Structure formats: C-alpha cells, structure tokens
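Possible regression after last week's pipeline update?

I re-ran a chain I had predicted before the update to compare outputs. Posting the input and the new output here so someone can diff against the archived version. Not blocking, just want to make sure nothing changed silently.
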Amino acid sequence: MLEISLLCCGSNSRRRRSNQGADTFRVPTNSVIITALAAIAGSLVGALGSAIGTWITARHQDRRDLLGKQIERREVLYSDFISESARLLVDAMQHNVSDLQKLLPVYALLSRVRLSSSELVLQKAEKVIQTIVKTYPQPNLTAEEIESRATNGQDPLREFSDTCRVELDSLQRRL
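New output (post-update):
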C-alpha cells in the first residue's frame, strides 16, 4: 500500500505540476517564426525608410526645377524689357513725336513684369517707361550726344537692370 500511495502521491505531484503549467499562459516559442517576423519587420522598416527618402528627394528636386524655370523665365522677360526699352529710349531721343503703337510692346512687357516680379523691380520698370514717355517731347539729340550720355553714365536702364540682377541672385541662392 505504501507503494500505491507513493505512486498516488507521485501522480498527484505530476498532476499539480501539469496544473501549474496550465494555469500560466504559455505559447511554445518557435525560433523560426521569430526569425521570420524579424526579417519581415526589418524589410518593412527598410522599405519605408527608402520610400520616404525617395519622396523627400523627389519633392526637393521638383522645387529646384520649378525655381530654375522661374529664374530662366524672368531672365528672358527682363532681357526683353531691357531690349525694347533701349530701342524706345533711342527713338525718343531722336524723335519728338511718339507713335503710341511703338509703346505697346514695352507696356505688354511691363504687364508681364507685374505678374511675376517683385514690387521693387516693377517700380523700376515703371520708372523706365516714365523716362521714355518724358523723353519724347524733349529736343532731339544727335548720335554723338546720345553716345556722350551713355559714356558719362547716364543710363536710364541702370537701376532697372541692377534691381533685376539682385532679384535673380536672391532666387539663385534659394536653389
């Protein structure tokens, strides 16, 4: 009987141990599953980091391209305005009567300047046009007098071109 009780006790102790194990939540761990989950999580984090990096780079490049195109358009606009204004200034110095048709291109360029440029550039462009309009009623100048004014630093386009250069330089620094 003693043996039976020991067996009984032994089986009870086994039962207790197995009951103790059943009381706690225990999932068998499989190293293969953990390794696979870690690999998947690592891949997802790596892919997400790469995608975000690519998106940031593309967005920055798009901004640089847009700003570069904006600078190029303004350079062409300012160059066209300077060319047309210089032509009209020489015409105004040589003729007393202005043909209003001649002023149309420079006013169209002024409107384009108004659309895209800073207030300071616009003011300088308007000042150039005022100079042109005021020059027409003045006495005509000879070619030598026009050349003399140019060599003496009397350049009505100087302020405009200097202001444009400053604006374009500030845009260029933003690239």
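Follow-up from reviewer: compared with the archived run. The chain has six helices and no strands. Marking as no regression found.
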